[in-house]
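Dig into what follows:

_____
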Amino acid sequence: LLRGLTIEDIIVKDKHRADLFSAHKLSIIPGKFSLSKKILIFRKIYIDKGVIQLLTHRGDTVLNLQFILDYFTPKASVKPYDTVRGPKWHLSAASVQLVSTRFHIQDENKPPVWVGMDYSNIDVSDINLLINGFYPDGDTINAKIVHLSAKERSGFIIHSMSGDFQVSSAFLKAHKLKLITNNSNLDLSFDFLYDHWNAYTDFLNKVHIKATIRPSYLDLSDIGAYAPELYIMKDRFKIEGKIKGTVSNFNAKDFKFAYGSHTRFYGNIHAYGLPNVEETFVDLNIRDFSTTRED
């Protein structure tokens, strides 16, 4: 067992007989384990052709994973409750690799969203992922993504992504991020700040963004998965600068963008009202600007 454990063609079903987890190959190589010190470290976790499916079935109010969590939750005891908490488990993995894997999370009680990202039915397929240094810290997950490629059912495709990530119920932080999609090539660091996961259902107004963008190319149509109104805006910009605020109300400082053959801008921007372009107010502090009739 110390050399590792490999299971082929594993399937775990939920109470509704739907697949909760399956994989053509699951390999786990342990590193360090101490029950007394509550340490569990893996050298490598490998999943090939996996399916991870978290469902809230129609008529249910909890995820299909709940019955497993309940099984491992200690039952109430007649013994006096120990008010002194012991040390938390230290969990980490030196390497996590997923090959041709699918992740699906859906609340079947919610109506479908046909255009853009449906946050009650997120389905990501063709996941090829390599993580070094994966470790939870409280409710925060930390990971260094060496490579990620994947496709979401909305049509949003990640061809290549790498960076240092932190995720919790209050923020998503990505530093030293390099991202290549169908039409964009980005080099940036950003923090998404929010009160709860549900903020993503109103991404334009409730997710606060702090971003430093190094010279990058952004096509607005790529944002359409998160803001469907932008699908039709197939405009590619070269951008650089710092952004703070929400998509609907943001400030851009020391911002540079280039568009077309001759359009160049350098200055500060305050924009309010996106994605409704016709009703958006823009305040510009222009340091340098040039354009032509063709652009």
Remarks:
- Helices lie at 66-72, 203-206.
- Confidence is low (pLDDT under 50) at residues 80-84.
